[in-house]
């Protein structure tokens, strides 16, 4: 039995969880998310809790047990609070600019990079070097942040590039001028 899967999910006020056949819908103040459930997994919706149960003990269904419990927890958190990731742009002359649904990035290349922002996430800028990505779907927020970071990953010597706010970079020592 999955340790993650057996924990109940608390449903905050203002959030509704509906089960139609094998599709779960979670609706809250920030929006609505849906997820299809595969395998022999059942949901019991009681008062202000959802319990995910595994009906057969095959390896596939046991792995689905913890997966769907965590996905449902992320959906409830997303529609009630939302998710956000913060990226920092480090480097001389590196900056970001928001033009409607396009994030224009100057990252030391000869041309500016234009990153199209998906409708499911929103991007805000603080200054020229702090990009905040937020939305209700944890996977889409993380994917957008990872795609932006991949445009100029941090280099280990000076730390130039795009990093997550709480990311620890392992810095290397440059050449030593031994004579």
Automatic annotation (TrEMBL):
Keywords: Ribonucleoprotein, Ribosomal protein, RNA-binding, rRNA-binding. One of its GO terms (biological process) is cytoplasmic translation. Coiled coil: none annotated. GO terms for molecular function: rRNA binding; structural constituent of ribosome. GO terms for cellular component: cytosolic large ribosomal subunit. It holds the Pfam family Ribosomal_L6. It comes from the Bacteria. Residues 11-82, 91-164 form the Large ribosomal subunit protein uL6 alpha-beta domain. The keyword Nucleotide-binding does not apply. The keyword Transferase does not apply. Part of the 50S ribosomal subunit. This protein binds to the 23S rRNA, and is important in its secondary structure. It is located near the subunit interface in the base of the L7/L12 stalk, and near the tRNA binding site of the peptidyltransferase center. Belongs to the universal ribosomal protein uL6 family. PANTHER family: 60S/50S RIBOSOMAL PROTEIN L6/L9, LARGE RIBOSOMAL SUBUNIT PROTEIN UL6M. This is Large ribosomal subunit protein uL6. It comes from Marispirochaeta aestuarii.
């Amino acid at each position: 039995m999955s340790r993650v899967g057996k924990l109940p999910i608390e449903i905050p006020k203002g959030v509704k969880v509906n089960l139609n056949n094998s599709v779960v819908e979670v609706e809250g103040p920030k929006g609505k998310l849906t997820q299809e459930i595969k395998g022999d997994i059942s949901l019991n919706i009681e008062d202000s809790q959802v319990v995910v149960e595994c009906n057969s003990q095959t390896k596939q269904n046991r792995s689905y047990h913890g997966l769907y419990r965590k996905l449902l927890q992320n959906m409830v958190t997303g529609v009630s609070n939302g998710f956000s990731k913060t990226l920092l742009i480090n480097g001389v002359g590196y900056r970001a600019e928001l033009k409607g649904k396009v994030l224009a990035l100057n990252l030391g290349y000869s041309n500016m990079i234009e990153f199209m922002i998906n409708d499911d996430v929103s991007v805000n800028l603080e200054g020229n070097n702090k990009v905040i990505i937020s939305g209700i779907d944890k996977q889409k927020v993380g994917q957008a942040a990872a795609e932006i970071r991949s445009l100029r990953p941090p280099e280990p010597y000076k730390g130039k590039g795009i990093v997550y706010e709480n990311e620890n970079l392992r810095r290397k020592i440059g050449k030593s001028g031994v004579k």
